[in-house]
Amino acid sequence: MNNFVYDIPTRVYFGENQLGNLGAELSKYGKKVLMTYGGGSIKKIGLYDKIVEEIQKAGLELFELSGIDPNPRVASVNAGADICKKEDIDVLLAVGGGSVLDCTKYIGAATYYDGDAWDILLQKVPVDNCLPVITVLTLAATGSEMDAGGVISNPETKDKIGLVFPVMQPKVSFLDPTTTYTVNKFHTACGAADMLNHILEVYFNMDQDLYMLDCVMEGLMKTIIKYAPVALEEPDNYEARANLMWTSTWAINGFVNGGKRQAWSCHPMEHELSAIYDITHGLGLAILTPRWMEYTLNETTVSKFYQFGTNVFGIDKNLAPMEVAKKSIEMISDFLFSTLGLQSTFTEIGIDETNFEIMAKKACMDSVLPGFKPLNQQDIVNIFKMCL
Amino acid sequence: MNNFVYDIPTRVYFGENQLGNLGAELSKYGKKVLMTYGGGSIKKIGLYDKIVEEIQKAGLELFELSGIDPNPRVASVNAGADICKKEDIDVLLAVGGGSVLDCTKYIGAATYYDGDAWDILLQKVPVDNCLPVITVLTLAATGSEMDAGGVISNPETKDKIGLVFPVMQPKVSFLDPTTTYTVNKFHTACGAADMLNHILEVYFNMDQDLYMLDCVMEGLMKTIIKYAPVALEEPDNYEARANLMWTSTWAINGFVNGGKRQAWSCHPMEHELSAIYDITHGLGLAILTPRWMEYTLNETTVSKFYQFGTNVFGIDKNLAPMEVAKKSIEMISDFLFSTLGLQSTFTEIGIDETNFEIMAKKACMDSVLPGFKPLNQQDIVNIFKMCL
Asked: Per the database record, which ranges form the Fe-containing alcohol dehydrogenase-like C-terminal domain (chains A, B) (predicted)?
């Protein structure tokens, strides 16, 4: 059991109509606010107007950067950092889903660097400073609202890189489940697949760690399995949206990690997929997850699958461990592809074998992904083939 | 489902040999450190020497206040605040269990007040400032290491009052499970009863709130039930001590509360007991808990007991809810009094009916305890009688 440092200082306003606190929170950091957002859905749902009103009421000066894409590009990071430098911005306000939040964190960091922001992703320069980031979340998925990480894509090099820098931790996040009412079925399902995979990447680990954290993870997974279908059927069900939103945050804010040595598997594989095919992250994870589970199941790892199957899916504890394990993989497939209705194969989404070798090579960085079961390039190609 | 603000910024160093970070953490706040502790057990286990060494290495100036009692007295708060004012202390270092930590928080607050610290407990003065508090925990029980509350006794008035002030939140806490190896069976058991009751006070609530938090609470309770007996049998079992320590923290740091309207029941009753009889808090809670459960079980509340019994104790879901409920009370009694070996009645610990009326009157503040089931003075007397 390894030591760890728990350090998650983000303050969260959870629930409806909490934006009355936004002006005061922004004002702690200065007068000039850069609001970042995506394609304009926040205008459709009236969120943009509410935020602008609060900023005006607080007497702050508003700057804007819109058009941040899903799988956010380094170009957006550079564009944002340019505004911050030129306008001497004091605080960043990210309004949107994980892509907007991730991009905004790097804008905050890149403001303190004079070159191309991609150098930060390549770890060529240290990241010791970041403008304060406040977020208003509109999608339950990535957990970016309460962690210090972010993933940025570079379409020129077809790379997608995710890093964590403590200075990028959001100071404050506003989580209003009603802002996710308009998230469509597909993105609701992808969000659920994403948060579920965040937990599985930590949970499936043979390091001995705190039982209490396994219990917490099992509880979070049960919550996703219970409420994602409800949110699909009733998009404005507050109970479902609230449970999914707070669960997605805690799936990846670091609490459940404890002292486990962390090495994720599905995420590095999926990042290569999105980098080339620009698919939705949660969809790529959904397709990979059950194949990765099947590929990593063996006599050594079966005990973890047994724990998962009995505690999360309530599979009969009296069955043989290997039987429970296989059944748990069936049940998670069923959840992802039948209940959530996500496409189940690469073929269905137009991905063939063409790039498997290069993606696998990049995913394991020409070496080995040291996760739950270590995966080399051939292993990853094998998993990709299982997804066809 | 109510809104809430999540705000728990305490940084925690969890595990063995983390005190190498203590000097740097203290130094952030200044040069003059007041270390507070209890009766000297920290000297016996070598912790005192380690801490003094780290403080010397960091070039800090050390002041001390020892002799803080269990059920800490307001006299200790005043004594500590006097030192802080006289010596111009920059930062407080509380080393011990919940009593030392609670007392130290109020020392930090009372430093900014010129009168008797009891005025703070009587809420006669606002608490807007507190010296920074850093803690080194040696007992898994109260959760004071990661919350902003504390309970102080006044032997003269026979009052015991607990309040929460955000400014008292510890900046940093060091949680080393090995420091609890020497905690004897009785206090290990009382600690387990305390943390279990902290969760039950929140869990048993008919407000609709986040399912995910109920799942987390069930996980924490399962952890206590699994590991408290192990710690009793093998006091130096790291896995057991670590699980109990981190669970006790999360039982009461505020996370599990969500948006529930909070009104605790057993704690106000127990505080009156300790105020008069100076018993160990966890023991008082242990005796009260199953009686309070029995007293509050009815057709309205049975659904919560059913959830508790099936999810925490694994009682057969096919049984009638009332049967599950009664069985769950039996099982918790069995856990507290047989497994943990705690005394099960007031009579055994020398408490009779003499003060029931006055304690009940104080516990409900001459009105009604508005908890899981509202309890008036007569209800509380009835529960006390069930404990005889």
From this structure: 188-386
